[in-house]
TrEMBL record:
PANTHER family noted in UniProt: FRUCTOSE-1-PHOSPHATE PHOSPHATASE, GLYCEROL-1-PHOSPHATE PHOSPHOHYDROLASE 1-RELATED
InterPro entries on file: HAD-like_sf, HAD-like_SPP, HAD-SF_hydro_IA, HAD_sf, PGP-like_dom2
Transmembrane domains' residue ranges: none
Segment forming the signal sequence: none
Protein name stated in the entry: HAD family phosphatase
Native organism: Streptomyces millisiae
Lineage start: Bacteria, Bacillati, Actinomycetota, Actinomycetes, Kitasatosporales
NCBIfam families: HAD-SF-IA-v3
Length: 203
């Protein structure tokens, strides 16, 4: 489906679930990383919290912060080891390429860790399509706070109101709204069921 890009100077894309079908891998890796700590995480529970940052997710599971740091290190390494298995969402990638042809600036703004996101972009051949990559470590607050999107716009040199966001999670869509940006909910095009159909901003 074509997206009307007129009026925008930049497009900002979430990574997990938007550009790539990474959530099953992310869940498997998290479950493995938590196993030695005696914590289990069901897919259904995880799927309802897509878009939540790693530390926030672990806090909801009751994992102490000092343990969470170790879990995230192991979790990240497991994902990086399997980055070559990631598959892109081709409809979303076509929008990225369309934006490049139109001369629009392009960024990734992800609540994931920098090493994981950059490994995924490299493994899928997407890295060269983006001017800027912003990840969780770069901001004080992750989504649904607007910080990631605002920082991406700043680094792109584009005002927030001229940016269009692509997201697959309610937290990300809320963050885009808080940043004063229009947003496209990609779930209808990537085969993911909406988490809350009452909140689906579409540009």
């Amino acid at each position: 489906m074509p997206i009307d890009l007129s009026g925008y100077e930049a497009l900002i894309f979430d990574f997990d679930g938007t550009l790539v079908d990474s959530q099953p891998l992310n869940h498997r890796a998290l479950a493995t990383a938590l196993r030695k700590h005696g914590v289990t995480v069901a897919w259904e529970w995880y799927a309802r919290r897509l878009g939540t940052s790693g530390l926030d997710l672990l806090a909801q599971l009751g994992v102490p912060r000092e343990v969470a740091v170790d879990v995230i290190d192991v979790w990240s390494e497991l994902i990086i080891q399997e980055a070559a298995t990631l598959r892109t969402h081709q409809t979303v990638v076509r929008w990225v390429k369309e934006a490049r042809r139109a001369g629009l600036r392009r960024a990734v703004a992800s609540g994931g860790g920098g090493p994981v996101v950059r490994a995924g972009l490299a493994a899928t051949g997407l890295a060269s399509l983006f001017d800027v990559v912003v990840t969780r470590e770069a901001v004080e607050k992750g989504k649904p706070a607007p910080d990631l999107f605002l920082l991406a716009a700043h680094r792109l040199g584009v005002s927030p109101g001229r940016c269009l966001v692509f997201e697959d999670a309610d937290e990300g869509l809320e963050a885009a709204r808080a940043a004063g940006m229009d947003a496209v909910d990609v779930r209808p095009w990537v085969g993911a069921p909406p988490q809350n159909t009452a909140q689906r901003p579409v540009a």
